[in-house]
Amino acid sequence: GWSWRLIGAAGQWALALAKCGVLLALMAGVAPLILGCLFEVLIVVPLRVPIYETPMLTLSQNWALGLVFLKLWIRIMVVPVQLDPFDQEELPQAAQEWQRRIEVLRRNGVLGVDFRWTMETLVGPTMYTLGDAIAIPYVASQGLGSFLATPRERAWAKRLAVPTYLALKAVVAIVKVIWRNAVALHDRIRDERYLLGIQLTNFA
Questions:
Q1: CA dist., res. 163 & res. 171, Å (int)
Q2: Quick one: which of 25, 24, 27, 23 has its CA closest to 35?
Q3: pLDDT at residue 65, rounded to an integer
Q4: 37, 137 in Cβ contact below 8 A?
Q5: With contact defined as beta carbons under 8 Å apart, do 77 and 95 qualify?
Q6: Please, what are the averages of pLDDT over each run of 10 residues along the chain (204 residues)?
Q7: Which of the chain's termini has less CB crowding within 10 Å, N or C?
Q8: Cα distance between residue 146 and residue 169, in whole Å
Q9: Sign of dihedral through CA atoms 184, 167, 76, 32?
Q10: Which stretches of 28-92 are DSSP H helices?
Q11: Residue 138 and residue 51: Cα distance in Å, rounded?
């Protein structure tokens, strides 16, 4: 009867809202907080806090700042979806993939949200990247601090942990891009040199 259909619809909505609540808590709560803390550690603390003082992070301000950055990033990813296909092809492959994921999430809507797919393709990579950027430097600085003699040296280790780690990751990423482009250029030159004048003929 109609009562069972109503109960079924209510259960479906409740399940969809619960899934959206979990996704929203991670993407609008935890992710902006980590992003805001990273910004403060990288930019604000070195400019405002002396090395001999312990920085005090304001979580509410960090969350609000991180939310602004996250919304700006999503906006940048969503806007190119409305461009011509020829313009989209000029974007990096990673940017195109993120655009596709965000567009699929928008099309699914609240009731059609695929919780597992969203966690694996959107929430998971985002949380992993942000967590990796702040957790590994923290653990490394704490471990290194036990081998340093003076409090000032330990303070410098903590202060430089995140910038150093992110700089190393940026260098590795740049080297990978240069190597990939160099290999592609080598293959293209090789093909142009040795395959010049060769035509494929279909004898069928």
A1: 12
A2: 27
A3: 92
A4: no
A5: yes
A6: 74 82 90 92 86 83 92 73 50 72 79 83 90 90 81 84 92 92 87 63 51
A7: C
A8: 24
A9: positive
A10: 31-39, 45-48, 59-78, 85-89
A11: 17
In this prediction the pTM is 0.74
The tokens of 3 are what?
């009562």
Q: Of 133, 111, 158, which Cα lies nearest the Cα of 17?
A: 111
- pLDDT at residue number 165: 93
Q: Which two tokens stand for residue 11?
A: 């259960």
Gap between the Cα atoms of 44 and 42, Å rounded: 6
Pair of tokens at residue 204: 């069928």
pLDDT of residue 90: 53
Strand segments, DSSP code E, in the chain are none
Residues 133 and 166: beta-carbon distance below 8 Å = yes
Q: Which one-letter DSSP state was computed for residue 201?
A: -
Q: What is the pLDDT of residue 154?
A: 83
Among 5, 1, 65, smallest CA distance to 34 is for 65
